Amino acid sequence: MLYRAFQLVKIPQKDSLSLSYLNDISYHSYITQDSVLFFKSSGKAMTLAKNLGDIQKQADIHWNYGAYYLTDNNLDSSYYHYQKAKQLFERAGNHFFAARMRYNMAYILGRLRDYTGAEVFLFQAIETLEPMEKHKQLYQCYNLLGVVYEELEEYQKSINYHKEALKHLKHLDFKFPFLQDSYNNIGLIYQKQGNHQTAISYFNKALDTKDLKKNDLFLYARLLDNRAFSKLKNNETTNLPQEFMEALHIRDSMGTIPGVIMSRFHLSEFYAKANDTARAFYQARTSYQLAHNIQNNRDILLALELLARLDPKNKDQYLQNYIALNKRVALKERKTRNKFTRIQYETDRYIERNEQLSSEMNWIVAGGMVSVLLVILLFGIHRQNSRNKLLKLEYEQQQANEKIYRLTLQEQEKLQQGRNQERIRISEDLHDSILSDLFALRMGWAYLDLYGQTKELQKHRSNLQELQQIEKKIRELSHDLKNKMIEYPMDFIFIVEGLLQKRSKLGKFNYTFVHDGNIPWEQIDNLIKVHLYHIIEEGLQNCIKHAQASNFSLKFIWHEEQLILKMADDGIGLKTKRPAGIGLKNIKSRVKKMNGTFELESRHGQGTKITISIPLIINRP
Predict the structure, then answer these.
(1) Beta-carbon contacts of residue 462 (< 8 Å; ≥ 6 apart)
(2) CA nearest to 174, candidates 135, 219, 143, 220
């Protein structure tokens, strides 16, 4: 039927109705997994959407592509199309759908273990969705944040975000199966912490759902298996191994191989605890073979670790295979993350270039209009020629000042970007190389059959524990290097600090710099900052050339919507009866442009104090 609809759609150059039909066919062919029809309809829909200039429809089509490639596990192509959809939705003013694309991009980054990138997109999405009260999407974002922090082993944060997700779930009429999924996620966190009694209580909450087995057999099997494993770890043998067997039978009948692998892992643990080594080894070996068949590296690693415990004779071979695969996985993940970074970088450069071209065009148009206006004024009002020149010079000076300020910020931003990139590189080297090698060394050491006196064996175990603590410290250091980076672009205070350092060295005087942390610099206009910068320059220039000062102090104070600047030196002072020099005139001129007040205190031999107050109206969030 979809093919027939596709054949019937006529595609003139500009026809919004045909575009809607094609977009619907594209979406439904994705749902029915008809790849041939999907690509045909999506390609024609995109061509027509571009001809019509329909940004919203272009974004929808990229969304379809992203979903299709995600289903096909082609993560880089999926990420690319979700990113394109996000940009187009933002251009179309559809911030809700743009936030949903951020969630999709975060999900993919989480799959690739780029948890920092996933966090950024999720918090951006939440910031958009909260005022809209989109509770379903907020539930999804907080739930994924819980999963991210679980992978980072920050379990309390993970639980907090899962509970935040449950708060938004209360606003939805249909909570199934989201509620049960959340209970399962929270139960797994407590399971990882070894708090199996609490884990069992959450699994029971989900399993107590009416008609759960009838409505979602897959979820029922997962919950049953997870609860049985916590019961095993909690030394509760009621209905074991029957619950493991039931979950395995359901998963096997549904053909969910990853679920079958996990069930067999848990059965292996059960038989190992019951000292039935043969059955435990059989289940572990079967899990390994299944994981190998579907190329599930995570489960292959788990199986190799389990086999090393159950088969001491061949443990060296298992551990060698574990180390080799773990390194390959880490290298592959790093290459994939680098690929995603390039996608983001190239997209940002494309956007920056477009903005630059647009800005240049605006300047060309503005320049043309100004030129025409100047010609008219020159012909019409010859007497005001000098005044016009002065206005033009002031305008150009203002633009130059702002440009210098922006260039200074950009220079500091590039320096900090370089530092941050180096921190990320060191973090990844620590995590992916050194930490993996330490872990492999500890695993190999742990399974050595050592004999000796009790004291030596205790020392052996103590060394293993110390090695594990070293691993933990390296992991924390790796996370800190990546997460606790200095943000950029750098602020006004940083620029002023640099100016003080340079001029104090030139003038060979000491300086103190105090600034109120409550000053909202990011909301203060750049032109104000330029004026302040040049006022401080004039003060420092006076200190170097005339004051013969040994000490210079600078303060920024925020008081009752007033920004107060205080400068003082301990130099020879000014003769206040003499006419003001060009430096003071420049300062007064800049203060006047900011609608501020200027106060000067100076006595010969007792230094100079300048106080400037500037009224500012700041719209607090």
Answers:
(1) none
(2) 135
8 Å CB contact between 524 and 563: yes
Whether residue 236 lies inside any domain: the answer is no
Radius of gyration over every alpha carbon of the chain, rounded to an integer in angstroms:
33
CA dihedral 272, 274, 275, 276 (to 10 degrees): -80
pLDDT tens for 109-146 read 998 888 888 999 999 999 999 999 999 999 999 999 99
Which of 489, 510, 525 terminates a domain? The answer is 489
- Longest Cα–Cα distance of the chain, Å, equals 107
Question: Within a domain: residue 567?
Answer: yes
Q: Residue 113 carries which DSSP code?
A: T
Which residue range forms the structural domain that includes residue 584?
A: 492-615
Last residue of a domain, one of 430, 462, 489: 489
Q: What's the DSSP call for residue 312?
A: G
Count other C-beta atoms under 10 Å from residue 294's C-beta: 11
DSSP assignments along 512-551, one per residue: EEEE-TT--GGGS-HHHHHHHHHHHHHHHHHIIIII--SE
**pLDDT per residue as tens digits for the range 428-486:** 766 666 767 676 776 776 666 666 667 777 777 777 788 778 877 777 777 776 666 55
- Asked if 284 and 265 touch (Cβ cutoff 8 Å), the reply is yes
Residues with Cβ within 8 Å of 83's Cβ and at least 6 positions away in sequence, in order, are 101, 105, 343, 344, 347
